[in-house]
TrEMBL record, chain A:
Domain Ferrous iron transporter FeoA-like: 5-78
SMART domains found in the cross-reference section: FeoA
Native source species: Sphingobacterium psychroaquaticum
Domain of life: Bacteria
Name this polypeptide is given: Ferrous iron transport protein A
UniProt cross-references to InterPro entries, sorted A to Z: Fe-transptr_FeoA-like (IPR007167), FeoA (IPR052713), FeoA_core_dom (IPR038157), Transcriptional_repressor_C (IPR008988)
GO molecular function, one term: transition metal ion binding
Automatic annotation (TrEMBL), chain B:
Entry's localization field: Cell inner membrane; Cell membrane
Taxonomic source organism: Sphingobacterium psychroaquaticum
Membrane-spanning parts: 275-296, 331-355, 375-397, 409-435, 447-468, 506-525, 644-666, 678-699
InterPro entries per the UniProt record, alphabetical: Fe2_transport_prot-B, Fe2_transport_prot_B_C, FeoB_GTPase, G_FEOB_dom, Gate_dom, GTP-bd, P-loop_NTPase, Small_GTP-bd
UniProt protein name: Ferrous iron transport protein B
Signal peptide: none
Keyword terms, alphabetized: Cell membrane, GTP-binding, Ion transport, Iron, Iron transport, Magnesium, Membrane, Metal-binding, Nucleotide-binding, Transmembrane, Transmembrane helix, Transport
Residues at which GTP 1 binds: 10-17, 120-123
Protein topology in the membrane: Multi-pass membrane protein
Keyword GTP-binding: yes
Lineage: Bacteria, Pseudomonadati, Bacteroidota, Sphingobacteriia, Sphingobacteriales
Length: 81, 700
């Protein structure tokens, strides 16, 4: 069974596939920069005390940083790798 | 016939500016787009028998704007009436983000703008694990594809030769989902002459600034009757375009492991480490400010001396009189006061553009965002704020790197609260006057006071940022998403042109304002309304016939200042400054130090008849000034003019007040408006007045 998590709950080194990017909370820029449903992302860095999160988007091979409060609105599935 | 306009369009970090610099060489200048603060980089190149105007558009990921920079791109490409609307767009990409660049290219083509496609940094294609089938790519894009390596100039010549190419008809690959079609058909009726995609863009954006209010309202109504938001349309476009390219790109480009990212990852393990990352960052900051001070100081001293001797030289040549004085003390000293900032600005910007070029600046944002976000600032605000400890002028300029308009504005508004080096001499003089030289828990109270004033600057900056972030409105919502680009060696051409842009912008932009204010202040200090100013000897000798030659000269200077326009202004504002505990002599100091805070010490020296050249670093001279100031009696209160209450009040006033016309000038230039400049001056000086008033009334 697949389980959905919000992206901010993952720890460094974990990989997951994006299942949903909350439309009402996040502007389309998130999609345009490569955070698309179906993309495989890996948590690479976390700034301390709930700072930004550094994501490696495997699909487009880029490193993107977003705030934790925004990662909360992105849903991912862990065991669909 | 006007020059054909070529616009460079592309994502950030693709080396677009390097391409621009290569194409235009040094035939370029940086201005602002009308009415706003977005930098406009324009240049020309002569080729193929004509002259082309080249515009380097701000870096963007999409034509749907989320910031002022991106708004400009859409206005230029989407509005054919725009003065900068290009005849040809050159989409610049790099091997690693081909997909995103193709989307941008498709959007531009579908708006009806002809475009070429360039893959820059082509030398990195192998390392980034990419093999491209150019023939297929050209077919797919229906245009010419060029490859460049802007760092060494490869491919630039071929690209310039292609500026007359106009690719053939472009058939859109973008088919609009059936659920949006009825709405689009309705919108099309409003814009019968536009391409379908242009109309779609109108419908998919909240606020297209170049449409009329009626048209915008009509579009809004269409969206709401059909029950979707602009964001829905944008998201759908983005998802559907990406899906389509994902299917098709495999036939065009083969991708393997990205070696650059592996290397970058290793470096980031250290530079983004939760502990080591901060240690490295603060070490870098420390080095930056040390370099700014250590390297700039001898150059600044040299400039200072050169201008002083130039003034002497000119004064020797010109016949004595008001014209000679105007040129030497007004104009030349004014110019000297501008040029003196150049070394600091240049050195700071060399270091900042190195951080930008290598990709480290994005890491700074990553590390610092958490700490500045609560105050409505951005990770990048840390550079302007910390630079503010040196001097607010280069610091405010360095806020240009902040993309978010609101966060940039707030950063610029609060940066002058940081304790700049010009406040230091005032603090030193006033603290030794009014703060007892005793110890508290083993610390000298005087030193503690100084440290406290520095902390106060930081607190004032953050607190006012917090308040401003609640007040300032923004069209674009606050969010943070940014790329952490692969580390790379800096392109020195970009560093050099960037430093030159910033330095010359300061010299010629802000310099005008500083110079005119310096001249106004000089006029006020050098002329008086009555005979007392022009014949001081007569009046001094009448009052004190036994005065010696030596003292007479000093008395004359002081007497003249007292009866100059500046002096009368000082007396005129006495009722305003009286509640703060100041007399008219301090009033003159306040008015004249509006030019620059450090002038206060020199003015006080003149007011107290010591001659202008008091060197505050010379202990004996400092003692003389201090003794003189200590024995001064405020004629309103009968108490010493510099007691604890008035001294603390004065310290606080200087901590908060906008006593620096260079800062005002640079704010005007950077914000492009007097509105924010005046708001800032009013806010700072108003706060200074209130705090100084409270301190004096409480302590007296």
């Amino acid at each position: 069974m697949q389980k959905s998590f919000s992206l901010d709950t993952l720890t460094i080194g974990e990989c997951a596939r994006i299942s949903e990017v909350n439309a009402t909370e996040l502007p389309s820029k998130f999609l345009e920069m490569g955070l698309l449903p179906g993309c495989l992302v890996e948590i690479k860095h976390k700034a301390p005390f709930n700072g930004p999160i550094g994501l490696h988007i495997h699909t487009s091979n880029t490193l993107i940083a977003i705030r934790k409060s925004e990662a909360y609105h992105i849903l991912v599935e862990k065991n669909s790798l | 016939m006007s020059n054909p306009i070529i616009a460079l369009l592309g994502n950030p970090n693709v080396g677009k500016t390097s391409v621009f610099n290569r194409i235009t060489k040094l035939n370029q200048h940086v201005g602002n787009y009308p009415g706003i603060t977005v930098e406009k980089r324009e240049g020309t190149v002569k080729a193929n028998g004509k002259t082309y105007s080249i515009i380097d558009l701000p870096g963007t990921y999409t034509l749907f704007p989320t910031s002022l920079d991106e708004d400009i791109v859409y206005q230029i490409l989407g509005n054919k009436e725009n003065k900068s609307h290009p005849d040809l767009v050159v989409v610049v990409s790099e091997p690693n983000n081909l997909k995103r660049s193709i989307i941008l290219y498709q959007q531009a083509r579908e708006l009806g703008v002809p475009a070429l496609f360039v893959i820059n940094m082509i030398d990195e294609a192998k390392g980034k694990g990419l093999e491209i089938d150019y023939q297929k790519l050209e077919q797919y894009l229906n245009t010419k594809v060029y490859t460049t390596d802007a760092r060494n100039g490869h491919g630039i010549h071929q690209l310039i030769e292609a500026f007359d190419e106009r690719p053939g008809y472009y058939s859109s690959k973008f088919t609009i989902d059936s659920r949006f079609v009825p709405a689009l058909e309705e919108a099309k009726k409003l814009f019968p002459l536009q391409t379908e995609y242009q109309t779609w863009q109108y419908l998919a954006q909240e606020d297209v600034s170049f449409l009329s209010a009626d048209q915008r309202l009509a579009l809004k109504n269409i969206r709401s009757t059909h029950g979707f938001t602009a964001n829905d349309l944008q998201r759908w476009e983005s998802i559907s375009r990406n899906k389509q390219i994902d299917k098709e790109i495999d036939a065009i480009a083969v991708r393997k492991e990205n070696l650059h990212l592996t290397k970058t990852n290793k470096i980031d393990k250290l530079l983004l480490h939760p502990v080591m990352g901060y240690i490295v960052f603060f070490a870098i900051l420390l080095i930056i400010f040390q370099l700014v001070f250590i390297l700039a100081t001898p150059i600044m001293d040299w400039i200072d001396e050169s201008f002083a001797s130039l003034v002497d030289l000119v004064a020797g040549i010109l016949p004595e009189g008001p014209i000679s004085n105007l040129i030497t003390q007004g104009v030349l000293s004014g110019i000297g006061g501008i040029v003196i900032f150049v070394p600091q600005i240049a050195i700071l910007f060399i270091l900042i553009s190195l951080m930008e070029e290598t990709g480290y600046m994005s890491r700074v944002v990553f590390l610092m965002d958490r700490w500045l976000r609560p105050y409505g600032l951005n990770g990048k605000s840390v550079i302007p704020l910390m630079s503010g400890i040196g001097c607010a002028v280069p610091a405010i300029m360095s806020a240009r790197n902040i993309e978010n308009t609101k966060e940039r504005l707030i950063t610029m508004l609060v940066t002058p609260f940081m304790t700049c080096s010009a406040r230091l001499p005032i603090y030193v003089v006033l603290i030794s006057l009014v703060i007892p030289n005793e110890t508290f828990l083993g610390f000298g109270i005087q030193g503690l006071t100084l440290a406290l004033l520095y902390v106060l600057g930081v607190v004032a900056a953050l607190a006012s940022a917090w308040i401003l972030s609640k007040i300032v409105k923004t069209k674009h919502r606050s969010f943070l998403i940014f790329e952490l680009p692969s580390y790379k060696a800096p392109d020195w051409r970009n560093v050099v042109t960037n430093v030159w842009d910033k330095t010359s912008g300061f010299l010629f932009g802000a310099g005008k304002i500083i110079l005119s204010m310096a001249i106004v202040l000089w006029v006020l200090g050098s002329f008086g309304p009555n005979d007392k100013f022009y014949n001081p000897e007569k009046y001094i000798l009448e009052a004190n016939p036994t005065i010696g030659e030596d003292h007479l000269a000093e008395e004359v200077a002081s007497y003249k200042l007292e009866h100059s326009f500046l002096g009368y202004i000082g007396m005129g504002i006495e009722p305003i400054v009286e509640p703060l505990g100041y007399d008219w002599k301090m009033g003159i100091g306040l008015v004249s130090s509006f030019a620059a805070r450090e002038v206060f010490v020199a003015t006080m020296a003149t007011v107290y008849s010591l001659g202008e050249d008091v060197d505050i670093e010379d202990d004996a001279q400092k003692e003389t000034l201090l003794t003189k100031m200590k024995s001064e009696i405020n004629r309103n209160t009968g108490l010493p003019a510099y007691n604890l209450a008035s001294g603390v009040s004065l310290l606080l006033f200087y901590a908060f007040a906008m006593q620096c016309m260079s800062t005002i000038a640079i704010m005007k230039r950077e914000t492009g408006s007097w509105k924010w400049t005046l708001i800032q001056t009013g806010m700072m000086t108003g706060l200074a007045y209130i705090v100084a008033f409270l301190a004096y009334q409480f302590l007296k």
